[in-house]
Amino acid sequence: MMNKEESSLTAGKTGPVLLQDVRLIDKLTRFAREQIPERVVFAKGTGAHGYFRVYMPMSDFTKAAFLQNPDRKTPVFVRFSTMSGSRGSADTLRDVRGFAVKFYTIEGNYDLVSTSLPVFYIRDAIHFPELMHALKPSPSTNLNEPARFWKYISETPEATHMVTWLFSDKGTLKSYRHMEGFSMNTYVWISANGQRQLVRYHWKPMLGSKTISRHEAEFLAGFDPDAAARDLCDSLERGEIIEYELNVQLIPFDQQDQYDFDLLDATKAWPESLVPLLKVGKLTLNKATRDYFEEVEKAAFSPANIVSGIDFSFDRLLQGGIFASQDAQRYRLGSNFEQIPVNQTKYPITAVVMQSRIPPAVQVEGKIERSQSVRGDDFTQAGERYRGMTPKEQDRFVDNIIDHLMFVDDQIQQKVVGYFTQADKEFGARVARGLDF
Question: pTM of the entire structure?
Fold first, then answer.
């Protein structure tokens, strides 16, 4: 007869395995879960650490603590990204770029979410899903098709101003060190005595703003699709300091009706001739990331993260972003995403400070209506933008549009050119000639 040990070994050879390799199973399950869902927008990015220092106290406009003491260095983490492409897309494709800054302030984390262009396609977040579907590859072929983009533009006249930025030299770049940033959305600054100011933010690169042509962008997309991320990482590894100056445009809350356009409309820029820039402080990046996945991929930014002295406006695009960004992070990272090291606060936060970060509830009687009537129109600023370009910039701009619009359906072409003509007759005529109609 076999003893107990021999019986066990024989069963293992001839019947089902009763024991499992725990280390093997553990390793394979960890491998299968290494990745997290890709961001729906701003999927491909890179990041860096640094600090922010205010030039002078901003107490006349806001009581936010990190904007008061010029001697204090507020730690920051910055994530640069492309908006519509996937994680494997090229850095130099024509697109909006993200410029998101997380300030680790003594009152908690403040996220300033900006983009490389001062305006956006839409003014109301209710249209955001349709916009992103138009910017993403076709659901049937998974191929990027210009016709999907231009069909959406043809149905969205408010996007005309955005087109004048996206297809200009500002739409392509290869270095985040030379990229501007704009809050695009409108926020509110509140002083200690309760005075309220509408505010928009503007980052200016201290190295100067630089762009590239469509032809160089297309070449780099094949030669080095990670050109912008590589440029940032290599510069930091060489010990170079990267700096941006923060400027703001401020308008007293009770003066917002004095302008011929809606200050809360994300498709409209605030002309610097009407609302000059005020210098606030300097952002310095001096440290590259050490763990891309833990720092860049798990970084969670949201305009919902504010501090006392900064509040939300009734910007309809912003209001949607407040919810959507938080919901997206919970889906990607789990309900405790704020406990991930890169998202944690760096200072102990008291209950008093936490309470002060919650905006006061605003009760409005009546029902919510999404009126289609807006102050101003969809074409005036687009025309001003075109006429503000140099002749060479206009030539490249028109050529970029024609190249992208060339093989789109004639009806879509004619409708879009009609928008361009309403913005500026010469602009529309030049595109029409290039399309042979």
Answer: 0.90
